[in-house]
Write a structure and sequence with these properties.
By secondary structure, the protein is mostly helical. The protein has helices at about 1-15, 15-25, 25-50, 55-80, 85-105, 110-135, 140-165, 175-180, 180-190, 200-205, 205-215, 220-235, 250-265, 270-280, 285-310, 315-340, 345-365, 365-375, 385-410, 415-435, 445-455, 460, 470.
Amino acid sequence: MATVDKEEIQSNGSNRFIYLTAALAALNGLLFGFDTGIISGAFLYINDTFAMSPLVEGIVMSGAMAGAALGAATGGKLADKIGRRRLIFLGAIVFFIGSLTMAIAPNVPVLVAGRLIDGVGIGFASIVGPLYISEIAPPKIRGALTSLNQLMVTLGILISYFVNYAFADTGDWRMMLGTGMIPAVVLAIGMVKMPESPRWLYENGRTDDARKVLKRTRKTGVDAELAEIEKTVEKQSDSGFADLLEPWLRPALIVGLGLAVFQQITGINAVMYYAPTILESTGFGSATSILATTGIGVINVVMTIVAIALIDRVGRRKLLLVGTGGMIVTLSILGVVFYVPGFGGILGWVATGSLMLFVAFFAIGLGPVFWLLISEIYPLSVRGSAMGTVTVANWGANLLVSLAFPMLTANIGESFTFWLFGICSLMAFVFAHRLVPETKGRSLEEIEADLRENVTDPVAGTGEGASASSRE
Ligand code: BGC
């Protein structure tokens, strides 16, 4: 067994094609991250061009998230219908049109339309990136390859900070937003050369094409993998959205929805979107705050790389537990520091350090593990729709937290807001401990078989009592 594993890892390791394909597909993550980060900088200057009321500001800001929820709601079904590859292409085009519309917007309604279109592209990208990569990846390195998408999300956010900085002098928000067209073009061109997901091909009766793709992306085990895919495809009747509610799928749906919501209500985007404001309140000047924000962006990227290095070795569960555990501790400290009236000096540094560690713990746990697990735990026939459903929940919760954060800090104060996020992190820890399955090293078909076996006892399928293979 050990020799086989070694052999497989070695042959996968030499397969440049699979790495290149996954890296290109991960550009979906770059679009997603870039867009969430760029708007915060652009916003400072859009106000000089168009006079906006706070309500209109809110609409412009949240337009992309609403669009993303819409994109996620339709993208899952589309991924099942037209295929993963075509959806990536479509997403890139939509994203390009959205960025262009915003860059040339002559007035606020057109700007909002651009944000919405852009959001739909992000919604597509946030589903189809991890979905596609997880389906073309060999099981042994699926965690690392799929998490490349999350790495690109963090890189996208960081690049957006730099782009904001580069155009800050001129205040050229049109250029800031228009820059998003570049990765969209690269993705659209790159996609032409990429293969379709072998699993989707098989499911759609294109067995020979599926075999060809597996041969290109694996050196060993093609027949065995194909036989496994065949077994799961045979078991499915034609599935629709209603099938998601079937008892045997319920545990997976609960895990996906739970992680989707916890990923957001533990406060990551309050930090990502409002970091400069939070840092200024620790007593730093504007320039230092912006620099420290870039530092947070760098930590996010670096810790995601650490997660990628570990995820197929230590597994998803451990990373999730360590990550949420660390978030509980750092958020508690932040709550204490902000409780001290008019704190500064050394406490200012403690707050900044805790904020950075909080992001680091998110980046090794909830950040990558959520997107990876939801691309692994759903059966092929409903994978697109299921991912669509949980991704909508993720964007919905994101929108809620982004809108609520300024109101929360104004009403209950920063201290209690951080403690609230801390309590949510505690709930996320317990949830992960009780219900999240280990999927490390197992084929997508094995994961599905486990789900079917555990139909009589949903919790046993995923939590404490799960079978040895799923908890290994
Ligand atoms: C989340 C985003 C977040 C990003 C930060 C992603 O996994 O879904 O909402 O902004 O991580 O790195």
